[in-house]
Amino acid sequence: MSSTTGVGILGCGPVTQAIHLPTLERVPGFTVVHVMDVNPEVAAAVASRVGAAWSLDADEVISDPAVEVVVVCSPNGFHAEQVIAACRAGKKAVLCEKPLAMSEGEAGAIADVSRETGVPVVVGAMHTFDPGWLAALENWGGILESAHTLRYSITLPPNPRFEDFATDVVGRPILGQGGKFDAEAAAGMMAGSIMGLAIHDLPLIRMFCPDWESTEVLSAQIIRTGGYLIHLRIGSRSIRIQGVMTQTLEPEWRLEAIADDMALEVAFPNSYVHAGSALAVLRRGDTSETAGPFAENGYVGEWAYVADLVAGRAEPIPVDRLVDDVTFALRLADTASSEVRDRFTAELEAHR
Amino acid sequence: MSAILTISPAERAEPRLRLGAAVLPSSFRYTEGDTDVVGILGDGDWAQRAADAVEQGARGVLVVDPGLGSTESLVRLRAVLSRRSAALVLDRGWASSPSLDFAAEEFDRLAAPSALVESRLDASPDAEASATLLAHLALVRASVSPVRELRMLRVDATGYDALGTLEGGADVNLSAIFSHALTQAATVRIVRPESTVLLELGAVDVAAPGRLSVLGRAGRRVPLLPFETPHRGAWRRLHAAVTDGTTTTDLDAFVDDAELTQEALSVGGFRPGPRVAR
Fold first, then answer.
1. Three-state DSSP class for A242?
2. Considering CB atoms only, which of A225, A231, A249 is closest to B192?
3. What Cα–Cα distance (Å) separates residue A151 from each residue in A243, A254, B149?
4. Beta A30-36 vs A53-55: how paired, if at all?
5. Of the given ranges (A43-57, B16-30, B45-59), which has the lowest mean pLDDT?
6. Which of A239, A246, A327, A342 to mutate to test the interface with B (most CBs of B within 10 A)?
7. A245–chain B Cβ distance below 8 A for any pair
8. CB contact under 8 A, A149 and B177
9. What is the Cβ-side half-sphere exposure of residue A170, based on CA atoms within 13 angstroms?
10. Does residue B23 belong to the interface with chain A, where contact is any CB pair within 8 Å?
């Protein structure tokens, strides 16, 4: 019997290559035993790096008895069915990359199966596991209730700038380019931006907003230079969510929570690279306190949690919380993309 | 014409006025009685007081933090300034910062219609939204270009968010956050796909330099900025205008910004109501 936990990975793209495999080297107790990708060259190349078997079919990984933890890194549309299949197979845990599901129905089905089978589900929202963020919550958790303003901003250079320093990527996907840019394309861009990028820290935003189901979208727009800008009101809280794409070298990934008497700023490290944890700073007028940066980041925190979960040292995350997280994102994506579609159409009409 | 202008010692009583005039001893000298220039605060009907000062012989007037004021008084002030060939300098917070001169070239380089321009002010909860927005418009005008259209998404006791368009067509978004936890600060950022310029300014009343960051494909440049308060910069400008006999356009700019502020704050949101994410 192996002394380590067998890991099976579905999807061998840059997230698997640049994030999960390097992270697993930092967290003892796991062995990647089986990987899957629809591209045989990529699957074989990634498998050879870790000495694992490889398949073209997710079911072969899920049905492999040596696989005890399934990692879902496939395209978003496959997440729900693969998470459900892994739960049905009775695995010790399922780690699914964001988003957990692409509809509320899918999310509900995952919750039902997880509860029925007792298989815990973890979503790879790495910032929720970041030691800097967790220290901020531990030290200054009162800000969750008192913050009146939240600002979540990302300035993001192209991912390869970071992936290429995390690993040697094989078979990088070619992104679609060109095509007609109309109201539907703009709406799709907004929905994709929320479900692909903004979703990272929406669980953190939701922690400040127990009344998240009353979210009002004040404005949602695609930024002409690349990116998105969304203004929300949730109860008495004002929330600004922004992502800016840039070719400049300097990334920024920041969450601010501001109350009348204290203001928290959490600067997260960029994705992919292991550059330590977030730095959290709490200001109270002319004084400030800091937490972090710690040596490890949220990816390590995420896998350390899975290790504890498998070993029975940690409680499963309530699946309802994960469902609420993705529901928040899905509703936001739907409403914000409708706003973008309508605005685009109205502006087009105005210029005719 | 003397390079030294006289100013009333009464101005010494007000820190915001003293902070400028007291540190330009070669340009201004305190004296009793009639003076060359007058400094006044921008509360209440400041335009009326400024016009009165010019009528009484002042060759230049500096107004610190002018509020919206009365339309009639602004009209009268314009007429009086023109008739008496007097100079008016409006010291409108960060807009007077000498750091803006150092950032101007970078802002000019990036200020294209396709650029994203954004600015944020952090202020005390004691701040009034209208006064803050007025100062905000002045800052954007001075650093990039005037805001021509503005729609408020939200205005409340914790701040505001607004979207707009600059002269020239670039999109701009403005926000203000009111909190005792944050020190007074302002930022202006222009983002283009391959270059970004960010200006960060601290409290208006202190001489700490701002920080200018110019980001490009090659990395970051951080040009040095001066240790000079916006107030001192405004007084220097008044001195130059009076001694050179040049006219200022401060009042025209202020009137435009004041009209936009009143319109934006009275109209409120640009749509009947927000969408609820259900």
1. strand
2. A225
3. 11, 8, 24
4. parallel
5. B16-30
6. A246
7. yes
8. yes
9. 14
10. no
Confidence label for A309 from pLDDT (cuts 50, 70 and 90): very high
d(CA B173, CA B165): 8
Contact of B201 with B123, CB cutoff 8 Å: no
For A:181-220, CB contacts with B below 8 A are: 213-219
The predicted-structure confidence for B142-171, as pLDDT tens digits, reads as follows: 999 999 999 999 999 999 999 999 999 999
Strands B171-178 and B159-166: antiparallel
Cis peptide before B25 (omega within 30 of 0): no
Both tokens assigned to B41: 């605060």
Residue B271 has pLDDT above 80, yes or no: no
pLDDT at residue A261 in the model: 96
Provide the number of CB pairs (under 8 Å) joining chain A to chain B. 120
Q: List, as one string, the DSSP characters of B13-51.
A: GSHHHHHHHTT-TTTEEE-SSS-SEEEEE-SSSHHHHHH
Token reading at B64: 């610190």
Element containing residue B159 per DSSP (H, E): strand B159-166
- The residues facing A153 across adjacent strands are A242, A254
- CB–CB contact B158 A149 (8 Å): yes
CA-closest candidate to residue B190, choices B106, B250, B129, B100: B106
Q: Provide the b/e sequence for B48-87 (b: ≥16 CB within 10 Å).
A: bbbbbbbeeebbbbbbbbbbbbeeebbebbbebbeeeebb
What is the mean predicted confidence (pLDDT) over A131-148? 98
Confirm or reject contact between B124 and chain A (CB < 8 A). no
Give alpha helix (H) positions in chain B. 15-21, 46-55, 71-84, 99-110, 129-143, 230-244, 250-267
Report the predicted TM-score, pTM, of the whole model to 2 decimal places: 0.93
Q: Which residue has the tokens 């002045």?
A: B138
- Region A310-330 average pLDDT: 97
Map tokens 């970071």 to a residue: A162
ipTM: 0.91
How many distinct helices (H) and strands (E) make up chain A? 13, 14
Overall residue count recorded for chain A in this entry: 352
Question: A83 in helix, strand or coil?
Answer: helix
Q: Per DSSP, what are the bridge partners of residue B174?
A: B119, B162
What the block records as the tokens of B271 is 């749509």
Q: Is A288 on the interface with B (CB under 8 A)?
A: no
Closest CA to A156 of B110, B120, B193, B212: B193
